[in-house]
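Protocol step 4 of 6: structure prediction from sequence.
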Amino acid sequence: MTCRSVRRGERGYPRLLAEIPDPPGRLWVRGEASLDVLERPAVAIVGARACSGYGRTVARSIATECGTAGAVVVSGMARGIDGEAHRGALAAGGITIAVLGCGIDRDYPAAHAELSRAIVSAGGLVVSEYEPGIEPAPWRFPARNRIIAGLARATVVVEARERSGALITADFALEDGREVLAVPGEITSSLSNGTNALLRLGATPATCAADVLESLGLEQQRVVPSVPNDPAAEQVLVALATGAGTADELSRSTGLGASELAAALALLELAGAVVVDEGMVRSTIAR
């Protein structure tokens, strides 16, 4: 694991981050990519950890289209919306930045260790203001959110309950003078309370990726999901050609064991070729 750091005022320290009211004095970085990545047009995509299937799909779709258009996607590598934002950018072959609320040598949550490796392998970076060895703590995550907002020209909140961490990120973005967008949600869902409140306060509605890209001055590009060169993944896509299926149905149709199927689905998800929602698997590729 290669870690380095850059101090505020040194070459390579992100210009936008240096402009916020309380920039970290030192930024730790994991990954081989040039620090110039941190100067590219970036959008933060954040939201609830316990998100809905709708939120998961929207976050991934917006991130994929932003990545295709050349925007860097910034998020916090948490479960839920954050993870989908990173995966969406990776599916487009784009660059994504994960901001940690713990030491740079930790993957938090541990379940996202593979995701962090994929981010770095694809030319992205994992960053933190905390040196190696610092454990996660509840108070570190709100502080982490100011970095997420500070690295981006605009922040998109996909789903958020009242008093959620995503709203803290939005508050930081507003304090920084950056644009805040919110995805409209069902008025009966608690996951929409935060986003709909932002809209009432004047946030820009994010009804599609074009709304987000407009705030970055970028144009929307056509998204074509890639198909991994993997026999098991191809078997899964063939089985899905007649519609969505559960893991059990796919296992029976393909003859793949549980571990083989899980590996194939992971490849297809990262490529943006399938969406897994509440136990159902759906192909995004017309066949």
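Step 5 (inspection) to follow. The chain has two domains: 3-216, 231-283.
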